[in-house]
Amino acid sequence: MRSRDSASDKPAASRRTAESIESIEPALNKAEAIELDRSWSRSDDSRSNDPGGGFQKRIAIIWIAELLLIGWYMLVPLPNAGAVAGKGVSLRRGMIVNDSIPGLAIGNRTIIGLAIDDLSHIQNLPQRVPIFLTACSIAAVAIAVGWALLSVLGLDRRLGRVVSIATGYGLGMSVLGVLTLISGRLGLLSTVSVRCGLGAAFIAAMIVFIVARSFPKPNEADTSANMNMFIDRESGGGFGRFLSKIPFAVVIALFLTLMALGAMLPTIEYDALSYHLQGPKEYYLAGRIRFLPHNVYTSMPFQVEMGHLLAMYTLGDWWRGALAGQAAVMFYAPATAILIYSTVRALGSPRGAWFAFVVYLSTPWIYRLGVLPYVEGPLCFFHAALVRTSLLAWNEKTSLTARVKSWFLVGLLAGAAFGCKYPALISAVVPFAVVAAIDLWKHKPRSIRSFVAYSAGVLLIASPWLIKNVIDTGNPVYPLGCSVFGGPNWDAARERQWVNAHGPKPIAIGPLVDALLDISGRSDWQSCLYVALVPLAFLKPGSKRISIILLSYVLYLFATWWLLTHRLDRFWLPLLPVAAVLSGLGADWTTDRRWTMLRGFLITMVIATNLIYSSTALTAPNEWTANLDEIRGRTQMRLNMPLYRLDRELPPGSKPLIVGQASVFHLRRPIVYNTVFNPETIESIVKGKSRDEIIHKLTELGITHVYVDWNEISRFRSEGNYGFSPFVQPEVFDRLVSEGVLKKLDPLGAQQDLYVVLIRPDDKKQ
What we know:
Radius of gyration: 28 Å
Number of strands: 4
Strand content: under 5%
Helix content: 55-70%
Structural class: mainly alpha
Largest sheet: 4 strands, mixed
Number of helices: 38
Number of domains: 2
Low-confidence stretches: 1-48, 219-236
Shape: globular
């Protein structure tokens, strides 16, 4: 992966050969580099390859530090894997790597052998074709819409073709999300209307793109000169330069292949089963997007989830549509990596750009975000896009109009980040509003138009989610801010429950150290390449000032996560794209052979370890080529056997009330349920009611059975958990049995009770 610094002594033919061989870089290079502010790009560091004694000591210290880091990374106990393996079991990455080496593995099969077996059932791949094509179709429409918008703003040429595709994907998905929300609220969604709408959107976007591209852009010649500033900085030429990219291509292909196959597997993630996928499923079955009073989470911004809903309608099936939606979410990972690459290259490090690309994409967290339908994958994308486009806007010097358009794009992306989840208000909207305000003051004559454009972009994408909540609840940020705006079925007790679960945690040194260790590499799904390479960015000539700015943003993201949230590990993931940019600069801090040897060893070891770990079920479902019909039931059984039995064993036409359990996405029958932060349905039916009133309400809701998961209720009531309504006790159900409302059936599990609703002939007449 090492290449020399200069190609100036190469003949022109050799340079042309290199350009023709590389199929990925030309589109990225053609229009991506920006003219950096002189205060950021001047060489304010001493030469990193100075052969003096100071450099010798620096290299020696780096060798020692990096080797110690690798040792710690391989030997530190993994907190989540240990919990999965069992009490008292301590799993380490070194043990997992050891079990991947023939002759050293414990047992008859190596981890690599098991992974190959999971990839070998290629006869089942045709099942994935309609799912993957659906995801690709939605992605194509999103790219067309986003790219058309970039062309209207005159920014597609500045960004370059591949970067415009990547940026356009995320931007287009946010626009499609808003359009889906509006259409769904109006009851206009159906399989036919969605398919026709996607086709019409694609055609309209292409027309807009062609028309916008037909108009000459002012100062286009000057812009092109700026765009090509860094194109020839990467060294080497001809076949050698081509060979140096092969390791990167192999790593990228491996991770993306596993990620794509993993995304088309049924999810096991609790949040997805209870709202990320369950919400779109309910919208799909109802035929419209409506307020769900039993699922508070669906009142949060649902931009990513609209992609799942689109896929459900496109395929005409909520279960396979969810898999297509997951595949569409997976596309955010390579799009984010492209933006990271582009940013590092624009900052003057073409070689470091490739390292940044693979550092990000090979992180097990990113693989996990690509496979499971979390919203943090898209959120990482928008943070990477904000860094890239804010650099573009900051350095826009052609005209005020061009600067206004650039900041409008930054605002759209910040609003799209907010559309993923509320915390983006702090991580994305506010900090880039500050940058936009500073940019306003650095230009003379000053004009507030650029800041207004940023604000307008934010509101254009974010406001539909706020308006939806105002209509449904009277609170634009429901279920947040209920102490100020109020909300339906939200009292002081529920506010305390919410704050205790999701509010800031006490400040203490121990948890802070644990968090720093997790981000450094102890977390099961984190890569140690960030902490290994980020500090070295400050040693790269000309990169100190921009490194300070980027690191300040990383620290801001960490500090706000630590101080303002309940410190769920996923919530700090948006700092990874910014850290990846710094890691790319750090990887390229010098071309000294002693460093390139260490860099090669370090990156090879960590990426190989991450690939092995990502291939196991400890990271995400890995039955990549299994039969989808078989794995659908198998996944339900593994997740919750009693709930699986409930779904399969109740007679046709049954509609159970589920108490205590909300991860219900895989159930194929109608149900009544609620999340732990909503009023308990059984409580609202029974508390203070007579037998006749209870019978009437059960009949009105069509409830035929009552299923109670005492194990889940006990988990919620455990110390430090969300809490659960004290009303729900065994005595309540004993009373209903004694009054002839319910009859207890054979339990479905050790701590799961099942009751049938008894309706007498005279009860039906009431």
